[in-house]
Please model this.
Amino acid sequence: MCEYDVIIVGAGHNGLTAGVELQRAGKKVLILEKTNWPGGQAATKELFKGYKHSVGAWALLIFREELIKYLEMDKEGFELIRPESSFTVFGAEDQPCFIGYTDPIDLANHLAEDHGIDALDGFNRLGSFFANFKEMFERYMHEKPPTLEEIIAMEPDDKTRQALSRLSYGSAIEIIREFFKDSDKHGCIQGSLSASAIDGTHMGPYTKGSAASMSYHYTAGDTYDFKIPKGGIGTVSSSLLKVFQRYGGEVRFKSIVEEFIIEHGAVVGVRMKDGEEIRSEATISTLDSKMTFANMCAPGTLPTDFANAVDDIEYANGYVQVHMTIKELPTFKNQLEFVNGTVQSWLVAYIKGPEQLHKAWQQSRAGQVADDPAVYCYFPSQLDSSLSPGDGTHTCTMFSHYFPTDIPAGKHNEMKSHMVERMITAMEKVIPDFRELIMDQVVFTQQYFEKAFNATDGDFSLGLLHPGQMFGDRPVPGWDGGHETPLGNLYMAGAACHPGPGVTCLPGLNGARVVLEKLGSANTEAAE
Ligand SMILES: Cc1cc2nc3c(=O)[nH]c(=O)nc-3n(C[C@H](O)[C@H](O)[C@H](O)COP(=O)(O)OP(=O)(O)OC[C@H]3O[C@@H](n4cnc5c(N)ncnc54)[C@H](O)[C@@H]3O)c2cc1C
Model:
């Protein structure tokens, strides 16, 4: 007799989503979490007394809003903040800035007035082009998908096949330049699109296959909106935790699962780091494939080809996130002077264009810190006063891709300091006194996320968002997609699974539904 119907490894947002879906369907669920907080790589933490920062994820990008009600997060006070614009991208002084207005009319006016009618036309045509990928994404959002090659081959008309091939296997740059030709006038638009293309990948915008991540980032709406949870990203998981516990679910924090107990080709429970064994009918891993299979399944328990395919998954993904408290909101100068006193100042990004990202990518591959990194810099407490003490001081976070992944032993801290120095220098172009505003700062690279959450190589995608690792090739390329594994009763339901990374709740929800189907649901109404 098992103590639990389902054990879930990991209380990240996907583990908690799976927990809600299973527990309210009448299953007895235990979630085991290594850290002593919920949310994994999407948590809000008091890094400095009186200030809250979203460590890891900070905005909802791919998330579907209908899930707020479905998962009952609204009943636990979950709310979204909708800024009038998601970002203001700036480059050189003579380049027009690109403002990511969330209202399509505002965006259209900005494009036509500041970038020319050709930019507006390009944006509209690019939206229609992305719609091919979005339609494919939505078709398989809750379904076990075939591989990308199979999906494309199954399309009946040649035009759609060609569009999907380019949107999945092409380089971001070849698509971007088709719609935004003028690198001077449209440099910041090109840069903004390129930055979405390289997010969650180990590619530059010129790399074949970089179009896939860009297409993925434009699946949630017609514009690229950053939706901000009130109280920080951690409220996604804290509200899910409350729903899970309201239905009687049990979570144990500071509980590290060491390995799966495997008997006769099936997982029958988990062995904890302290030696305790806990048995269940089904076990769900929300960790990445390497952690799940190579680290937590005894050697020889998996088919050799499968184990080799797990070994080949690409994870390297370098980045730097700097959390700060600042004395006051900055006064912007030069090309960003116009954002002072407007909401457009809440998130500014220095992205001159694709070449800048490409060079940073090449430098990171050579193990060097980028000379001129692209930087996002945002002021969350400007939008959400609950994040700072309310005495005029504020929170600020900077993020940059392409911190080297292959760092010689003993050099990490030195390279981290160089990178932060260059990120601050980039922001000084528009906030000359930025350095003087900073009161405290703490810096996280991929190494922190690897150590804290057992994410292989600190890859927040839990398997890079490369076309060979998407759709039916997720979580393990060549192994039929889906949430089931070669081991009986072991399931996957984290961001390692289709549809992929980000705070989406989708892998957790879809994985839980597969487990419910296998176990038989006690409360089918709630699971629909
Ligand atoms: C710097 C950064 C910025 C990001 N920005 C965004 C963003 O703005 N928007 C967005 O949508 N996404 C963003 N992401 C990506 C997003 O955070 C992740 O893809 C997502 O949080 C993954 O969720 P998950 O629940 O699948 O996995 P995780 O959050 O990794 O959860 C897995 C959980 O399992 C626990 N665990 C691990 N090993 C064990 C064990 N042996 N026993 C018990 N528990 C264990 C971990 O502690 C963790 O809590 C960002 C990530 C980072 C790092």
About this structure: The chain is about 35% helix and 20% strand. The pocket of flavin-adenine dinucleotide is lined by residues 9-15, 32-35, 40-42, 56-61, 256-257, 286-287, 319, 321, 449, 453-455, 460, 462, 494-495, 501-503 (CB under 6 Å). The CA atoms of residues 31 and 290 lie 20 Å apart.
